[in-house]
User: What shape does this take?
Amino acid sequence: GAGVSQSPSNKVTEKGKDVELRCDPISGHTALYWYRQSLGQGLEFLIYFQGNSAPDKSGLPSDRFSAERTGGSVSTLTIQRTQQEDSAVYLCASSPTLNNQPQHFGDGTRLSIL
Amino acid sequence: QQPVQSPQAVILREGEDAVINCSSSKALYSVHWYRQKHGEAPVFLMILLKGGEQKGHEKISASFNEKKQQSSLYLTASQLSYSGTYFCGAGYGQNFVFGPGTRLSVLP
Assistant: This one.
């Protein structure tokens, strides 16, 4: 079956612009996670969604970052007024439920801020 | 609370064994292991739940010591394809945090 799909695969934009990153999880997966990975670094948790529950936004680095998940499926991560330090690979993962199930990762969006 | 992984990096010759450790100061509910090759997304290896279980996946196995809040990943007779960064993920009930990763390089 189809895996987690992320778009765009690459995004280059100028500092100060807003960007939207999209994640289409595996059908039926209720949990969806966003991570950020800077070059050579680990996986920094940003936010997760679980079913219809309020999302855990505790990992969002600033109020310029926001995310939503419409209809319990597709999710969009928005970064407003981008800064150079936002440059990273943004990874999305989904799992059938929280924590006790494998997370399936998309290929990520490589974001470069000029 | 991010779990601690050790070592940070390890270099092996093909056929050698390695152990990667993951420990937490907070009670663990579950431990995940993932491998990420350069330029690729992380790939799931296995999950261990509290109860001290051990799991195997080809020549890669893991254990979870609930009392010590520690998990170990065992790679035996390593192959070139084992090279990558190994991340443990700590499940704390509703929360989940990845460790900083262990970079494994297998040389011919």
User: Anything to note?
Assistant: The mean pLDDT of chain A is 93. The two ends of chain A are 37 Å apart (CA to CA).
